[in-house]
Structure formats: C-alpha cells, structure tokens
Amino acid sequence: MRKILIIGSGKSTSYLLKYLLDKSLSENLHVTVGDLDTNHAKKIIGTLKNAKTIYLDIFDKTLLADAIKSADIVISMLPARFHIEVAKDCIIYEKHLITASYVSPEMQALHHDVKAKGLVFMNEIGLDPGIDHMSAMQVLDRIRDIGGNIILFESFTGGLVSSESDNNLWNYKFTWNPRNVVLAGQGGAAKFLQENTYKYIPYNRLFRRTEFLEIDGFGRFEIYANRDSLKYQSTYGLDKVKTFYRGTIRRIGFSRAWNIFVNLGMTDDSYTIDDSENMSYRDFINAFLPYSPTDSVELKLRHQLKIDQDDIVWDKLIELDIFNDKKMVGITKGTPAQILQKILMDSWTLGDNDKDMIVMYHKFGYELNGMKHQIDANMVVLGENQTYTAMAKTVGLPVAIAALAILNKKITTPGVQIPVSKEVYEPILKELKDFDVVFNEKEVPYHGYNPLNI
Amino acid sequence: MRKILIIGSGKSTSYLLKYLLDKSLSENLHVTVGDLDTNHAKKIIGTLKNAKTIYLDIFDKTLLADAIKSADIVISMLPARFHIEVAKDCIIYEKHLITASYVSPEMQALHHDVKAKGLVFMNEIGLDPGIDHMSAMQVLDRIRDIGGNIILFESFTGGLVSSESDNNLWNYKFTWNPRNVVLAGQGGAAKFLQENTYKYIPYNRLFRRTEFLEIDGFGRFEIYANRDSLKYQSTYGLDKVKTFYRGTIRRIGFSRAWNIFVNLGMTDDSYTIDDSENMSYRDFINAFLPYSPTDSVELKLRHQLKIDQDDIVWDKLIELDIFNDKKMVGITKGTPAQILQKILMDSWTLGDNDKDMIVMYHKFGYELNGMKHQIDANMVVLGENQTYTAMAKTVGLPVAIAALAILNKKITTPGVQIPVSKEVYEPILKELKDFDVVFNEKEVPYHGYNPLNI
Q1: What separation in angstroms does the CA of A109 have from each of A87, A106, A113, A115, A231?
Q2: Which residues of A328-399 form beta strands (DSSP E)?
Q3: CB-side exposure of A228: number of CA atoms within 13 Å?
Q4: What is the dihedral of CA B325, B330, B334, B336, to 10 degrees?
C-alpha cells in the first residue's frame, strides 16, 4: 500500500481526490486528507475504504510531523505561503512533495538538500502555473528537435464562465479568488518583449492595450498583458526569442469596462476609505468624483470618463447596481479594492447551476530552413458543476497524475523543480487527454508583428 | 556677540545669509557657515568681518559637535534627512535649532527633551511649509477672534517661472528640485474634503481634476490636489470645517500635457528600463507604445492618447524634442522618471537671466452672524536673478527672521514646533512685508461648492 497525504482540502481538490480514489484499488493507494475542516473531502470520499480524513493543524508541529512520517508522498494544497512548513518536514522524513504554487525563494533554497536525499519536490504543476509550462515546453522542444529556431512565444490563460452560464453584460463571473481579480495587474508596469523591443505598460493603460484572440468554436476573446511576462523566458530556453508575451484572457469588452474602475481609483488596496461602513454603493462611487450640489453621480461619472450616451460600458455599470443609494458597503475601514470586490460579488458570484470554463492559448513562431512558421495551440476545458469545476480539474489532475507518476518512478529526477522537462510533461499531458484536457494545434501563417518582413 | 551657525549653504541660503549679514553690526551677530563646499557662501559673505565659512562634514562627529558648541543658535539647511544628527547635538549642547523642513517622527520624538531644556526647535518655517502655515493661521485666528466659524479653507502654492522669463509652451521651468516635480503626486491617492465629503483622486486622474484660479494682475492659473491635503486640518484647528483642500499651482494647460507622461508610465520610478544607456529619446517614448513595423512613434502616441491634430499639447511634446532619435538617454539602468527628468532638463532648466516666481493663494470661507463670507489672500514674489531667487527669498527670510527673533527672545515657547502660534507668525509676517513678501487680501462673495444654499 502506497500512502498519499493531501494537506488542505479546499474546493480545488475535488478532481485531485477523485483521481486518486478511482485508482486506489488498481494502484494500491491509500489517501489521507488532512485539514482543519475536512467536510468537503468527506463528501467526496464517501464510504470508500482506501481513504480517510484527519484533523490537521500545520502549526501543530507534532501533528504535522506524524502525518508526514506515515506517508510516502505529500501533496500540499495549502495557500502558497504555508508550503514551506510542509517542505521542511518532507526533507527531514524524506518524502516527495507536490504543490501547484509558484516556487518561493525559501522553497528554491531547499534544492540542494532535496536533491541530496533523492527527493522530488514538484511545484507549479497546476493550471497556470502548470499546464501552461508543460504544453508550451512540449511544442517548444518539438520545434527545437527538428532544428527550428523559436522567434515568437505568446501564452494566454483565462478562468471564465462557460458560454451556457454566461448571462451578464461583462461575460464574467468569479470562478477563482475574487480578490486576485480586483487586484490584477497592480504592483508595477507590465513588461514584455515584442520584436526585440522591451515594452512597458503602466497599470492605468493595461486594460486599454488589449489584443483580440479567436478560438475556433468559442468566438472572440481579448488579452491584457501579465505583469511578469518575462519571468520564464530563460526557463523555457528562449533568451534569444524576439517576442515573448504572456497575458490573461477575458471576453471582449471586459477590459475596457474594467478600466473605468482602475481609472477612478476603485481598485486601490493601499489605503482605507473614511466612514466606509456608513456608505452606500452610490456614496462609494461619489467619493471618486468631484463634489457637486446639483449634478448626479451618474452624469459626473459619464463626464469624467467621457462615456457616450450609447456606450455599452454604461449598461455594464448599471448592471452592477453601483449607483444604488440603499445598498450599503457595510465594511469598516475598507480599502477601495475591498469595497469594489463586495459590490462585484453581488453580481459575479457563480450560481448553483453555473459552470466555469478554462481557456489557454499559445502561439509559437519559428524559423526552419529559411521559412517562417507558426503553430497555435489552444485548450478549452468546461466545468461539470460547482464541485467538479474546470478550475479544479485543470489544477487538480496534473497534481494527482504527477503524484502517481512519482510513486511509480516514472518521474525520478530529484530536486526542487517545475514541470518543464520531457520526463515530466510527456506522461502528464498524455494522461490529461483521457480527461479531455487536450490542446488543439494548428499550423497558421506566421503572423508576428512585422508582416512586411515575412 | 551672538553666534549663529548655518549648516548647509546651497542655493536657497542666499537671502538667509544676506539678511543676517546685513544685521550683523546692528544686532551684534557673528555668522558661521559650515558645509563640505563653502564657495557659494564665500561669494555672498565677500570681505565682511562678522562672518566666516568652515569646512563641516556632519558625519565627522567631532567637527559637528565643535561647531555646534561654539554657536548660540543653529540653522540647518541640510537635506531633511540629515537634520536629526544636528538636532541631537543641539540638545546635548543646549542650542536652539531652526529648519525649513517637515517635522520627521524622529524630530517630533525629541519634543520633551527640547522642552525640558527650554530650547526652541522651530521647523517648517520656509515657504511651503512655512509661509503657508503663518499666513493661513493669521487669517484663521482673526476670523475666529471675531466669532467667525470657518467652513472652508483652501490653500495653493506654486514655484513657477516669472512672466518675463516664461518663454516655453509649458509655461514652466524647474525652479526647484526637478526630481520632486517628476514624482509629484505619486505614492497614493490624493485625499481632501469638499462640503463634508471625503474625495479621493488616484494618480492617473490627478492632473485631469484641476481647477482654475485667477490672480489679479497675474492672470489665470490651475491647481492640482496635493496628496496630503488633510495633514494640517487638526493643527489649524479645523476639524469641523466642511471643505479643506490644498494644491499645487501651475500655469493653465500644464497639467493636461503632463498627464500624457503620467498616462504612458514615464514618471514611474519603481523599475529600471533595460538597455536605457543605448536608447535615444525616441526609443524611450517608443518603449511605452505598441510595436509596429510601419507606424511612426508620433502617430502611435497620438492614437493611444487620442490627441487631435490641432491640440496644443502636441506642440508641447514637440518642444521637448522627445521624438529625437539622435539625442541619447545616456543613463545606465535608468528608471522612467530619471530618464524623463533628463529629457525635461534640456528644456526646462533656468537660463542665466531667467527669474522665478512664487505664487500662494488661500481661500477662507466662514459664517458670522448667520451670513457667509469669504476672504481670498494671495502672495506673489518675483526673483531678482539666479542667486536671489523668489524661492531662496521665501524659504530663507522666514528662517533668518525666526533665528533673530529667537535670539532676541521674541519667540520663547520651548519645544519642537511649527510656526502656527501668534507669538511666531505675527513678528515674522510683519517683517516679511519690509521685503515685499506680502499678502493681498480681499473680501469676495462666498463661493463654496454649494451655490444654491448660499
């Protein structure tokens, strides 16, 4: 019996758990889920015998050590900042570790110890980061294997609502942490590389510098640049690429409307609003507009941002009920971002029957034998319901598959790592296809940014 | 003989020094100027016997202590962060201290020690902060003395170029630290109070939310909000005021053009531009615009910011020569703000014959016997030349007058303080009039922001 410990059992663990439980007999697995609250896990485990839940407080050193000691491999689905506590015990008791989070400097610092003990600490193996790394590296390696020279790499991901549940003017609902959506793009200029030129976009322009993207069968989307586009340029072996650009996918028109909040200062999380607990939604909006004894909040906003009478962005604002003078903010000493989040959650929270959708799109431009080529690859995953969401599927399945592959010694290279080697991405992407997590690839004319030089 | 030590002898000390030297015989003063470089001071002192310069490195503890020991009063004209070193020695050797800088938390923490020793540590006694405090408090106290209830206080200051030297399209030159001009308004939303409503303006809107201001004889100006408008609300005893708003004065049209740089992200000081040393001005501008193999940097900028063909802001950009592909940035690893500053200094550095101008404007709204009233007070000071600038005059004279008043025991209340008490502002404002630093007051109809309720 191989023992798997999953620490943390939030919403994103449904598919992870289901995959391992489904294989528990054939693969001889026993799964333990440890958390402060194990109700979600209990529902999924049901009456299965090869699994159990335990109460686990990771700050109780004895509890944590005991749980890790009795496992063969540990999966941490905790918030990213807590992984390091788990990782230290995994080194002491010599257990493999898997997380879907970015490698923190503290985690990276463990690399030599992890390697020396022959352990695999696999990180960034969810959706984004995760499937993005694996699917990109698979195509990049293939192009390089045939002698191609990569000149362009673009990669975009979006967590959206599925078409059938898409019933608001923003074509958007919160399918993931709402706070991250409100704060997206803050903290410095977005930077990327276009035709060998570094480009910088400040926050206040980010949502106006979007580009369109067509996905066969799913229509048109738009992209805004990620702040950290160049983070993986070296990791992907693309130091000499001319264009390296990563972004976030939204339905057309979202960004232009969102920019209203950015421009008025409502996404700011750096200060608190005086007397926010006694404010109506209307008062909140008015705090970002000039005082007038006569003019309406509506007209002041239209005038400040020059919104025409027949502009659909206006209807998007109305739909959110932001001018309501009865609905109260009800947050004491709230930041603008916290208050805006509350207002948005009234409208953008997923309903019981809503389904989510994950969209990922890569573009690979390359030169081969003096000719320019381009491969576009896209993945669309739809959620089944509120438990088995597309987000839980695309985050949880790669984690689960990696765990089993490590147990089965298909993945053996030790160290703190992310899934960019063939040893890792080949078996995982292959198996993901069985779950309809699949990339559609097509050759297209090389578009680039320099059509005259093609 | 009363001995005055002035530490730091930058450009802003010309009037300060001249005032004290002119009084050195009648008031029996001896002035010592200590600095790393005393050339500027030597020119002003000339062959006068009651003054000398000394080499002074404030990080040489012995030198500093010796200099302070042999003085009766110390004036620190150092950059603000260095005052605290001087202040500590002033407590040890029991000397009064004067600075024109904001009271830092470290300075404030000395209050009880300073008070216990009967010393006066007078801060914020330059122009802004300084003359703004004194002139505002004088009128506020007068209104309160006759039983008036203050309902509105607005205060604006600007360091500008005088009309006769005003020969560029921006109607602006650097008369003070250029870096502060480039970074103005950054670091958080501007916050102020209008008719009992808190208003917040994010940085990207700050230069589009300006208001106009007319000064008799000098024409029209515009104002953008200071970030810290409410900082002195309590100090001025205005906790119950309905409107409290402070701002910076520019000539009409400056802010709308400046907003182009803000919007494109060129005032950002939080990251460095790759390869900036090899960039032309044109390359720098292009880094904030989308890539195109064909479209010009000019048209891309016009399009991004929707600048019409006949908009004067365009001519302002052209005047700065920002599209020049021969002029090199020449700064290694420069931030956008550093590079923009360099470009601006080509055009906005004061010429040898240029004169500067200081403008200050207060509005006081109050109720008395059921009627609403308003007093407007403005001050305009013109520079004489590049040594005797309006900035040096309005910063240096209040410092000098305060120093003599303390020596002459006209100002005696001990402690770390700013000039908001009658004991301080009355004699200083009175004497400033002899130097044509004078406020023109007039009663105007109460404007407020609520004309229907007047």
Answers
A1: 11, 5, 9, 11, 18
A2: 356-368, 371-382
A3: 9
A4: -30
- Distance (Å, whole) CA A138 – CA A447: 21
Integer Cα distance of B52 and A226 in angstroms: 60
- Which residues of chain A lie closer than 8 angstroms to B286, CB-CB? 197
Instruction: Give yes or no for A199 touching B (CB within 8 A).
Output: yes
Q: Beta-strand (E) ranges in A94-218?
A: 96-99, 120-122, 149-161, 190-194, 197-201, 211-215
Report DSSP state, residue B356: E
Q: Which of B61, B63, B103 shows the shortest CA–CA distance to B84?
A: B103
- Chain B residues near residue A231 by CB distance under 8 angstroms: none
State the pLDDT at residue A306. Answer: 95
A67-76, B260-269, B360-369, B442-451: least confident range: B442-451
| Residue carrying structure tokens 């339905």 | A251
Find all residues with CB under 8 Å of A122, minimum gap 6, and list them.
Answer: A96, A97, A98, A99, A402, A406, A411, A417, A418, A419, A424
Residue given tokens 């009992």 in the structure block:
B196
Chain A residues with beta carbon closer than 8 angstroms to that of B264? 202, 205
The one-letter code for the residue type at B319 is E
DSSP percent split of chain B into helix, strand, coil, nearest 5: 35, 25, 40
Site from B186, B194, B204 to mutate, A interface, most A CB atoms within 10 angstroms: B204
Tell the residue number behind the tokens 């202590």, with chain if given: B65
Residues from chain A that touch B294, judged by Cβ atoms under 8 A, are 452
Q: Hey, are the CB atoms on A293 and B451 less than 8 Å from each other?
A: yes
* Pick from A206, A177, A174: nearest CA to A189: A206
Task: Report the C-alpha gap between B347 and B298 in whole angstroms.
Answer: 19
Q: What is the largest CA-CA distance in chain A?
A: 75
| Residues above pLDDT 70, as percent of chain B | 99
Residue A196 near chain B (CB below 8 Å): no
Position A51: which residue type? A
Quick check: pTM over 0.80?
Answer: yes
* Residue A436 identity: D
Write out pLDDT tens, residues A379-432: 999 999 988 999 999 999 999 999 999 999 999 999 999 999 999 999 999 999
Q: Rounded distance, CA A172 to CA A224, Å?
A: 15
End-to-end, the C-alpha distance of chain A in Å comes to 58
ipTM above 0.90, yes or no: no
Chain B: residue whose CA lies nearest to A305: B205
Q: How far out from the chain centre does Cα B345 lie?
A: 19
Residue B53 sits at φ, ψ, to 5 deg, of -115, 150
Encode pLDDT of A325-380 as tens digits.
999 999 999 999 999 999 999 999 999 999 999 999 999 999 999 999 999 999 99
- Does the distance separating the beta carbons of A304 and B200 come in below 8 Å? no
**Yes or no, beta carbons of B453 and A292 under 8 Å apart:** no
Question: CA of A55, closest CA in chain B: separation in Å?
Answer: 43
* Burial grade of A145 (CB within 10 A; 0-12, 13-18, 19 or more): exposed
Compare A64 and A42 and report the one with higher pLDDT.
A64
Residue among B98, B201, B127 nearest B390 (CA): B127
CA distances from B62 to A56, A91, B33, B163 (A): 61, 55, 17, 48
pLDDT (0 to 100) of residue B147: 97
Residue B27 to residue B10: CA distance in whole angstroms: 25
pLDDT band for position B454 (cuts 50, 70, 90): very low
Contact A82, A89 (CB under 8 A): no
Q: How are beta strands B219-225 and B211-215 bridged, if at all?
A: antiparallel
Is residue B162 within 8 Å of B355, Cβ to Cβ?
yes
